Amino acid sequence: MNQRALLLVNRHSRQGQAKLEEAIACLKKLGFDLIEEATEQPEHLAEIIHQYKYQVDIVIVGGGDGTLNAAVDGLVETQLPLGILPLGTANDLARTLGIPNSLPEACKVIATGEIKQIDLGWVNGKHFFNVASLGLSVKITQRLTKQAKKRWGILAYAATALQVIWESRPFSAEIRVNGESISVKTVQITVGNGRYYGGGMAVVHDATIDDQRLDLYSVEIRHWWQIIPLLPAMRNGRHIHWREVRALQGQDIEVYTRKPRPINTDGEITTYTPAHFRVIPQILKVLVPKMSKD
């Protein structure tokens, strides 16, 4: 018997519209009965997932990390498994889970992969897959246009980041974790659930999306140029060993600032400080490549 799947593709994602027909053909060939719904308005994704929860066995989301983040609440509430077609600019969740960027290969993972129970991060009532952050990353999100992402892909992140870093100014924050309160002057606080974010940067070199912990780092520099030597180390998560970076771990973290500051969850601004972060262990089922038995 064919699997019944709800297919949600963000036609505005970097490859969404162009890849939609290919994805449909590929999934049908692999034996899926598809119900297709457009995702032009991401805020309606949870509602759409609820609408079909008794008619499908799986939800397949095609788009980037922002589209996946928009769907996460509906997935948690219905407990339907998630299949991922990485059609966005960064595809950091797919990278964390080892899902290939090739569309036929990603379809094959959904058809023949195994179910993995993953953790989610949570901040002020909003779930996230990869990271929640405040500071530089929010300014990058605010500056980065859809047109630039579509045209330049990952290069758009790099160019925008350099411009934002050059203008950066430290702000004061209080971090409470593991019964300790820490006052910091920082340009960026990142709280990670998975490993990758921001187009392939790693939160911490050994983070996994099922390690039942949150990894926080705070970049505490005085001058914008001090971040430049850190950037290569951020690709593999080794920046946490630098003197200018404070690294903390915990299951429950609070961050306070003098005035409310916007927080970016998986590339979308969704809440403000004061912020209460938690990890919710093994709450979501995702299809991932089968582990080799060798």
Report on the biggest sheet: 6 strands, antiparallel
- Show unreliable segments: none
CATH topology of the largest domain: Tumour Suppressor Smad4
Query: Given the helix and strand composition, which structural class is it?
Result: alpha+beta
Order of helices and strands: EHEHEHEHHEEEHHHEEEEEEHEEEEE
Residues in β-strands, percent:
35-45%
Termini gap: 31 Å
Strand numbers in spatial order across the main sheet: 6-5-18-15-8-9
* Assembly annotation: single chain
Report the helical percentage: 25-40%
Shape verdict: elongated
Mean pLDDT: 86
Give the domain tally: 2
The total of helices stands at: 9
Could you characterize the architecture of this molecule?
Strand 1 (3-9), helix 1 and strand 2 form a beta-alpha-beta unit. The chain has two domains: 3-112, Rossmann fold (3-Layer(aba) Sandwich); 126-280, Tumour Suppressor Smad4. The chain has 294 residues and is an alpha+beta fold. The chain is elongated and about 55 Å long. It is 29% helix and 36% strand. The chain is built from nine helices and 18 strands. The strands form four sheets. A six-stranded antiparallel sheet has the order 6-5-18-15-8-9. The chain has a six-stranded antiparallel sheet with strand order 14-13-10-7-16-17. Helix 1 (16-29) crosses helix 5 (103-112), helix 6 crosses helix 8 and helix 7 packs across helix 8 (154-166).
